[in-house]
Design brief:
Chain lengths: ~400, ~400
């Protein structure tokens, strides 16, 4: 007997028929002897419908009212799910953010959870009922309804699992787990059976959209095992857990790509100790988020340096005049080049910490396909390369199969 | 400068465009110098949509979950109305039942308000904001969301007006006030400018559907003047207030009718002191609600009596075997007759307390049209007659015009 949190996304509760099968799945777990807490998102389409109503009224809606509005989506889904469980002969009770007391800060539309009172969920479960908690929502200290931002239901689920000491947090979704890479790009992609929190964090932040990155952070912090699995089957999905020393570790766990960035190359900067600080300090002041930063050695006698960085492509138009002003006028750069036809391709794996030559192998695999590398960035468990966007799929397939991910990975 | 509660029903907030005009109306009142508290119902159709979803899952839904589900309708309307006020340049804040703390008992789907904490509304208004309160909903002592039953938003509005000491409670609706009778039945029906709480109570309970009867009871108890008016015009509607001794009182304020009842005549009962108590005690035990009760004098030597009463027509099929068992088998009645083709026609007016002959005039007006009276029941300010249902409209018109209501009533 275990205490299990099950989270169902908008697609999984997207119709009355689907809600009914969610109810059956919860009851099956209860019948196996588990205590069950369910977290639901809004029925798919509902959040957009609600926000659409608001946007008919105003283009700059008040964040507090948007949260009060959007939170109804999860409230409806929670009540319907509780009714569905009852209709299937079970006992259930819906609980809202302010009823559980999922306490957040007051940052409407992107609130962060500060504390969760697990007593109401615990007493519900202790009474033999399934607790159906509305995801995505919380309550501020002043009693205002807040929401955690898009995808916040994953965060709700993991945070609740941590608060009540659940044995596992199951994230039900419309895919059957986390894949070694995007199956649409690489047909040989395989489902990962087990992956560490650290690897999942890198994969999530690199574009694998299965799990919200914040939920993985919380799971890692509190040691909550996550099980990502399909809401349409009973098959095992992917377990995201703490690093397991006893297992033979794969070197590379997955390959990710991201086409949402643009490259900015600032050429011919005078190389002083404060050049990078001046440049990125000024860019940060303009509220432009920077991802990769690469600076090579300065070019000897000329005391000149080049700095390359990436920003979100959607920020490029807004950022260009700011960057020109900073780089050319204030820092005297000779030239600034922009390229939005780029992609970031990354390999992620805990194993690369103890395996030499992983980077070299990555570069070789790309070179063998004739793909020029425009920039490189590495962390302890990740290596990212910028390539021309047209090479994205070719690069992903070359890396994926070159690191042996096409075969069923051993975990 | 006044403190005004404005309540808008589902039709008045039935679309984004209508919500916008509600916002303009609230702001106009604020610009005139009033402090404004707005109560909104769910957008028309929304409550039925939500209940429809639940009924796809179960025919006997759990009342607690139905309330959590239905309350979202008003939450959406409140947030959108606050956004609309902001979009028009005003300042507004939505408040839910649990945020105001509209404390109710735990009778889900038909909860009764026990206490309202006016401080949150007061501080909102004191800050120059319009408080937009979700109607229809409250919160139980244990923190569960409750609803007040259909039409409960009127009750919310009047109870909030009482709690915060508002100068008036304006009920915006799709008609321009309370009429002397149903204009669909009697073209000469006129809008009533001013009517007492007592008269409004009798008219509401007799079938005039403009105001929820519970809201009138609360308004009378706390002396909150109600102004029923159209959300589509600025014309004065009907004021429902405490009886005003200084005004020349009309004898009859309005004519109501009700086609929803059925008549039951129990013939040939042995007349003992406990006959009526035995009969109606047993009927009440079967949870059958009785409206009119008429018992004539017993017929001399035979020690026999007849008792006529009315019940809701929708209860008739269920009630028949129960009534047979009680009346014939237990009380030895000779015969029970049922008639569902009847209507109750009533005249209401404070003035009849001090005017003799009103009842006689009513019976004469019906007799002049050849309408047989099947039963009569009177209270201090109301006289009701049962007639065959086919005479309903004829009776209403005869009484309405016979008591001079077709002319503009003097108040």
């Amino acid at each position: 007997m275990a205490l299990v949190v099950q989270k169902f996304g908008g697609t999984s509760v997207g119709s009355i028929e689907r809600i009914r099968s969610v109810a059956r799945r919860c009851l099956a777990a209860q019948r196996r002897g588990d205590d069950v807490v369910v977290i639901v998102s809004a029925m798919s389409g509902e959040t957009n419908r609600l926000l659409g109503l608001a946007h008919q009224l105003t283009t700059v809606p008040d964040a507090r009212e948007m949260d009060a509005l959007a939170a109804t989506g999860e409230q409806v889904a929670a009540a319907l799910t509780a009714l569905a469980i009852q209709a299937e002969g079970g006992r259930a009770r819906s609980l809202l953010g302010h009823q559980v007391r999922i306490r957040t800060d007051g940052a409407f539309t992107k609130a962060r959870i500060q504390a969760i009172d697990g007593t109401k969920i615990a007493s519900t479960v202790a009474a033999g009922e399934i607790a159906v908690v509305a995801g995505f929502q919380g309550v501020s200290e002043s009693g205002d309804i807040t929401t955690l931002g898009r995808g916040g239901s994953d965060t709700s689920a993991v945070a609740i699992a941590a608060a009540i000491g659940a044995d596992a947090c199951e994230i039900y979704t419309d895919v059957d787990g986390v894949y070694t890479t995007d199956p649409n790009v690489c047909p040989s992609a395989t489902k990962i059976d087990r992956i560490s929190f650290e690897e999942m964090l890198e994969l999530a932040s690199l574009g694998a959209k299965v799990l919200q990155i914040r939920s993985v952070e919380i799971a890692m912090k509190y040691g909550v095992p996550i099980h990502v699995r399909s809401s349409f089957s009973d098959a095992e999905g992917t377990w995201v857990t703490a690093e397991d020393q006893s297992l033979e570790r794969v070197v590379v766990a997955g390959v990710a790509y991201d086409k949402s960035e643009a490259r900015v190359a600032v050429i011919g900067l005078t190389d002083t100790p404060s050049t990078a600080a001046d440049l990125f300090g000024a860019i940060a002041d303009k509220n432009i988020a920077v991802d990769m930063i690469i600076q090579g050695a300065s070019r000897g006698a000329q005391d000149e340096t080049d700095i390359t960085f990436t920003i979100a492509r959607s920020d490029l138009d807004r950022a260009k005049p700011e960057i020109e002003a900073i780089a050319r006028e204030r820092l005297g750069a000779r030239e600034v080049r922009y390229d939005s036809a780029i992609a970031k391709v990354s390999i992620v794996g805990l194993g690369m910490r103890s395996h030499a030559g992983v980077a070299a192998k990555m570069f070789r695999l790309l070179a063998d396909e004739g793909i020029p590398i425009q920039a490189i960035s590495t962390s302890e468990i990740k290596i990212s390369c910028l390539v021309a966007v047209k090479y994205t799929e070719l690069a992903v397939r070359a890396l994926h199969d070159g690191f042996g991910l096409g075969e069923r990975p051993k975990t």
